[in-house]
Specification:
This protein is of the alpha/beta class and 78 residues long. Helices cover 33% and strands 23% of the residues. The chain has helices at 17-33, 55-63, and strands spanning 4-7, 38-41, 44-46, 50-52, 70-73. The strands form two sheets. Strands 1-2-5 form a three-stranded parallel sheet, covered by helices on one side. A two-stranded antiparallel sheet has the order 3-4. The longest helix has 17 residues, at 17-33. It is globular and about 35 Å long. The model has no long low-confidence stretch (mean pLDDT 89).
């Protein structure tokens, strides 16, 4: 059996965006430590609470902090 997670870009409006993204990166590190197989990162940018407009850049930051977990975008381009 494999385990994965989807990390949506939703955050609280009154939350510091830098701290929110830092917390998301810490979550991915924890999932890697817990031997999750993959994490998918969502993409959206609206209203100040969806703050990951480029999941590729966020994934690059997560990749340098993890050892084995597979990372992918949960975005769809048209």
């Amino acid at each position: 059996m494999q385990f994965g997670a989807f990390l949506g870009p939703d955050h609280q409006l009154n939350e510091n965006p830098t701290l929110a993204l830092s917390r998301d990166l810490e979550l991915i590190q924890l999932l890697d430590d817990l031997d999750y197989d993959e994490v998918w990162v969502g993409e959206h940018h609206s209203g100040g609470f969806k703050i990951i407009p480029g999941p590729e850049i966020f994934i690059a930051a997560a990749a340098e902090r993890t050892l084995r977990i597979r990372l992918g975008t949960g975005a769809k381009s048209f």
